[in-house]
Design a protein that fits this description.
globular, mainly alpha, 0% strand
Length: 161
């Protein structure tokens, strides 16, 4: 008579289980969008550091508060950097924040190009934001975020969610 299974053995990892699907490697398009978002977030953190150093160094605070602006850039940059990291390692929650950040950068790039007369900065910012959005809304990224793998996307079965 075989020995009864111990509770520890019943909880062992089963290949193809939940943990494997959650940590599956994201498509190249998602990793590319994650890289773009991570670089944008890191840039926001660098801008925050520069603003703090300028404020400490005695830069004029009458037009804009360097500390308050730095706090905003640190908060936004940290969130976008976290979203980029999440996409790079295959966490789906980072996509929404990355899409939101890219959408916010489009009017910023327009203002830089037209309002501030700095097309050398505004046009690249806009193109990078559009590239990030294109990667995040590519067919492979949409299949990934919906939880469908490449093999199951051709299935004609109805969605059971």
């Amino acid at each position: 008579m075989p020995a009864a299974a111990r509770p520890e053995e019943e909880r062992d990892f089963q290949p193809g289980g939940y943990a494997e699907t959650v940590t599956e490697r994201p498509p190249t398009t998602v990793r590319g969008a994650g890289l773009i978002a991570a670089v944008q977030g890191a840039t926001g953190l660098v801008v925050a550091a520069v603003l703090v150093f300028r404020a400490i160094g005695g830069a004029d605070q009458r037009v804009a508060n360097g500390f308050g602006t730095a706090m905003w850039f640190a908060l936004a940059g940290g969130a976008v950097l976290a979203a980029g990291w999440a996409l790079l390692v295959g966490r789906r929650w980072g996509r929404g924040l990355a899409v939101f950040a890219e959408l916010l950068l489009l009017p910023v790039s327009y203002y830089l190009t037209v309002g501030s007369h700095r097309p050398a900065i505004g046009i690249p910012v806009g193109l990078i934001a559009l590239a990030g959005l294109a990667l995040l809304f590519s067919p492979a990224a949409l299949r990934w975020v919906s939880g469908q793998g490449p093999a199951s996307s051709a299935s004609s079965a109805p969605d059971t969610r």
